[in-house]
Amino acid sequence: MDNLRISDAIEAMISFFSGSLHDINHFIKVWGYAKLIGEKEGLDETTLYILELAAITHDIACPACRAKYGSAIAEKQEEEGALMVRDFLKPFSLASSVVDRISYLVGHHHTFDNIDGLDYQILVEADLIVNAEEKGFSLDNVQNTRDKLFRTKSGIAILNSIYGF
């Protein structure tokens, strides 16, 4: 396994987001759900590691996008994030294939078509679970999102439990 411990990545992102309680709480919640779903879905160790690092860093571009564009609009967040996460991960001796996949996931986590792997699907589901609560989705919106975008048994079960479906 690569030399970046998950706990160290979390600590580094807390420092990166210093002063932004929302950004810190958001990524921690997304990471927690992603890890839970990934474990329940039986991801192998490497794929789970990639998923966890992608979940921790998925919104790395939010502060820069808010400063540059006035908001963390999804397409700009993906575009900027895919590059920023590479810089963030440079100090660590991660395999290029790991960095490439994390960058891809960060650069596509708001793109819901052509999902090409279980890690990608789980990241989308974890982010949607957290966004539904943070943005105050109606129960109808939560159900529609689940029915259109959720694919894993674990993600569906967790969402259903949270909202009492």
Describe the protein in words.
With 165 residues, this protein is mainly α. 72% of the residues lie in helices and 0% in strands. It has one domain: Hypothetical protein af1432 (Orthogonal Bundle), CATH 1.10.3210.10. The protein contains 9 helices and no strands. The chain is globular.
Question: What key phrases describe this protein's structure?
Answer:
0% strand; globular; 165 residues; mainly alpha; Hypothetical protein af1432; 9 helices
Secondary structure: elements and pairs:
Blueprint: H1 6-16, H2 21-40, H3 45-57, H4 62-69, H5 74-89, H6 96-106, H7 118-134, H8 139-149, H9 153-163
Helix pairs in contact: 1-3, 2-3, 2-7, 3-6, 3-7, 4-5, 5-6, 7-8
Strand coverage percent? under 5%
Order of helices and strands: HHHHHHHHH
Under CATH, the topology can be stated as: Hypothetical protein af1432
> Which regions contain 5 or more consecutive residues with pLDDT less than 50?
none
Query: If classified by CATH, what would the architecture be?
Result: Orthogonal Bundle
Roughly how many Å is the radius of gyration?
15 Å
Q: What is the overall shape?
A: globular
* Helicity, as a percent range: over 70%
Number of helices: 9
> How many E-type strands?
0
Tell me the name of the CATH class. Mainly Alpha
Multimerization state? single chain
Main sheet properties: none
Spatial separation of the terminal alpha carbons: 39 Å
Mean pLDDT: 96
Number of domains: 1
Structural class: mainly alpha
CATH superfamily: Hypothetical protein af1432
